[in-house]
Amino acid sequence: MQKITTFLTFNDQAEEAAKLYTSVFKNAEITRISRYGEGAPVPPGSAISVTFQIDGQEFMALNGGPHFSFANGISLFVTCETQAEVDEYWEKLTDGGQPGPCGWLKDKFGVSWQIVPSALGRLLGDKDPEKAKRVMQAMLKMSKLDIRTLEEA
Degrees (nearest 5) of the Cα angle 54, 144, 76? Predict the structure, then answer.
């Protein structure tokens, strides 16, 4: 059992979000859904909470009502090895959502994600400070990150 679990609180879209996230990532599954019974303030059978895993990391999603929202101060950081991986996650997570700068996006639920190629850290940490500066400047002009453009900088 992992010690720290990411806990996401939605208005009433916890199950929908968990289904999206487990469809986006290959090694992912919903592991538990707790549902309301008769007499609840919402229709019986509505999800209270959903537990799911992505690559062995557990997440919990709760339907907490309209007074909860997401902020930019926290995001889910996804490391990608290839441009195809960047493209796939970007396309699926921005569907109904909103692209942002420098590899950031908000999905249709308002959750912030960073879709980042692993090459970015290596390129930004280049021993040639001028090259690292060019990579930074190139990245600052991008929304979805492009590995080839970063490498060419």
Answer: 30
Q: Where are the domains of the chain?
A: 6-63, 76-152
Please say whether the beta carbons of 115 and 93 come within 8 A.
yes
Residues 6+ apart with CB under 8 A from 6: 57, 58, 59, 60, 76
Which residues is 151 bridged to in the sheet? none
Instruction: Say if domain 6-63 classifies as CATH 3.30.720.100.
Output: yes
CA angle, residues 56, 29, 17, in degrees to nearest 5: 110
Q: Are 77 and 62 in contact (CB under 8 A)?
A: no
Q: Which CATH class is domain 76-152?
A: alpha beta
Angle (CA) 13 86 96, round 5°: 30
- Say whether 68 sits in a helix, a strand or coil: coil
pLDDT in tens, 28-86: 999 999 999 998 888 899 999 999 999 999 999 999 999 999 998 999 999 999 999 99
Task: Please report how the helices 83-94 and 14-24 are oriented relative to each other, as an axis angle in degrees rounded to 10.
Answer: 160
